Amino acid sequence: MIELDFLFIYEHKVRELENLCLMKYELDRRGYRTHIVQIEDEAAVKAVKPIYHAKVVVLMACYQNSSLEWHTKDFVKFEKAIDLQWENIVYPKDEKDPKAYKNYSGIAKEVVRVSWGEMNRRRMLDVAHLDPKKVKLIGHVGMDFLRDELKGYYQSREEVLGHYRIPADKRVYLFISPFFSDHLTGPHIDEMCRRFGEGWRAYYDVFMRNSKQVILEWMEQVCIEQEDVVFIYRPHPGETSETANRMQEKLPNFRVIPDLSVKQWILACDKVYTGNSSTFVEAFFAKKMCYMLFPYPVPTDYELAMIKGAEKICDFEAFRKSTTETDEKFPIREEVIDEVYAIDWDKPSYVKFADMAEDVLKDPYYALTKQQLKEYRTKLPFKTRCVKAISRIDLIYRPYLKLIENERIQWKWLQPLRDSRKKVEENARNHHFEQASEKEIAAIVNKIAAQLNK
Questions:
Q1: Other beta carbons less than 10 A from residue 420's beta carbon
Q2: Which residues does residue 34 pair with via DSSP β-bridges, in sequence order?
Q3: Which end of the chain is flanked by fewer CB atoms within 10 Å, N or C?
């Protein structure tokens, strides 16, 4: 078993990996043992006993028992947990509802939790009733990459556009999609409704799908009218869009590109567009203009609170005008952004995170109890628990694996085990594109170090 001080577990590479590498850099610099792993890493999902012993496990999100169980599976043993809560901003309908999915239940009430700003900290204390000592206000680490000392981390505009064969003499505009895939399955929609209320069904079907269609039509029209404009459509993590892909095939100045981080594209492009999304904040920190596109009004319960007073583009003529105007005013006031993101130009958030993580590591107050670490897991049938316990013994597990892998042996009780293992392997394959190699992670950390140690 590998001994660690901190194990970082992430879901989406483009959303989280660079941020984790920045945190890893600072903790490594202070002498701690750290490691980063993707949540569906093949070794993790196939593990029947711990690969790592981490004193502190650092999570992508933790809303309930199943969140922690999904992260840790059987591959990590730990004593403490920090929730980075990359989805720090909640729907307005949940801000004052203590029973809301994102206001936590079970063991999620006990982990240490990061807050980007004062607004979210108040929700966690006043509505979710979390332990004040376990709520840490540190800002958003991802914004540190837009500070002067780290801006050189990113490729230049010419390098990025050259790589994707986009002419650098064009006006290049970025649309950061806040939308889910075109056709979510019924079970997926049901699960989202379970989390965020039945109104989410109409929010997705009536608002999100319709808004997405209209915005794509707006961009298509501008691309036809203005050949010196290129629109980059940046999909939401996990999004697929048949309409956008078809547009890319017929319009030379419309591109769908999921690669690279949002911050890299913001820095490389001339203007930024989005909708009911907090990504406009990254444009603000990068000092780039960002327009808010709302062809349809958002249902009251689902419009982000800090967007409510924003200047919005609601029709095609206003959108067309935005593509050529130069006298621009950012659509959201700095005071509103500060409430949510705790703007601090003096001390970077990654340093604040490392200070906090050191405190969590050293202070026994933050340790989860043995009872809590036992109860967050799904209660399995007695027979399954016995098989699981036996499989942790190497002398038994190795022959067991050989039986599973030998398809010539057709014992009836083996088939369900084979089916279960195949599902695990298929899931890992489906998420392979999200998994960063140790070499890739080391390269990012070294690139960060090169900038900060100039």
A1: 11
A2: 6
A3: C
CA 263-354-120 angle, to 5 degrees, is 65
Tokens of 145: 């990459």
Instruction: State the DSSP H helix or E strand holding residue 58, giving kind and residue range, or none if neither.
Output: strand 52-59
Q: What is the strand order of the sheet 135-137 is part of?
A: 34-38, 2-10, 52-59, 76-83, 112-115, 135-137
Contact present, 52 and 4 (Cβ < 8 Å): yes
From the list 20, 28, 81, 22, the residue with the least C-alpha distance to 55 is 81
- Tokens describing residue 52: 């790592």
Q: What is the model's pTM? A: 0.78
pLDDT at 430: 64
The alpha carbon of 142 is separated from its chain's Cα centroid by a whole number of angstroms, namely: 11
Q: For the segment 58-114, what is each residue's pLDDT rounded down to a tens digit?
A: 999 999 999 999 999 989 999 999 999 988 777 777 778 888 878 899 999 999 999
CB atoms within 10 A of CB 213: 15
For residue 253, CA distances in Å to 173, 229, 314, 316 come to 10, 7, 23, 19
Pure H helices in 186-333? 186-196, 199-202, 209-225, 242-250, 262-268, 280-285, 316-322
Contacts of 300 (CB under 8 A, 6+ apart): 92, 93
Other Cβ atoms within 10 Å of 220 Cβ, number: 18
The interaxial angle of helices 13-29 and 438-452, nearest 10 deg, is 60
How confident is the model over 165-224, as pLDDT tens digits? 999 999 999 999 998 777 788 898 999 888 888 888 888 887 888 999 999 999 999 999
Tokens of 183: 């056709």
Surface-to-core class of residue 108, CB atoms within 10 Å of its CB (0-12 exposed, 13-18 middle, 19+ buried): buried
Specify the amino acid at residue 232: I
Q: What is the CA radius of gyration of the chain?
A: 23
Q: In the predicted model, is pLDDT for residue 365 greater than 80?
A: yes
| Token pair of 349 as six digits | 């958030």
Residue 372, judged by CB atoms within 10 A of its CB (0-12, 13-18, 19+), counts as middle
Backbone angles phi, psi at 170, to 5 degrees: -85, 160
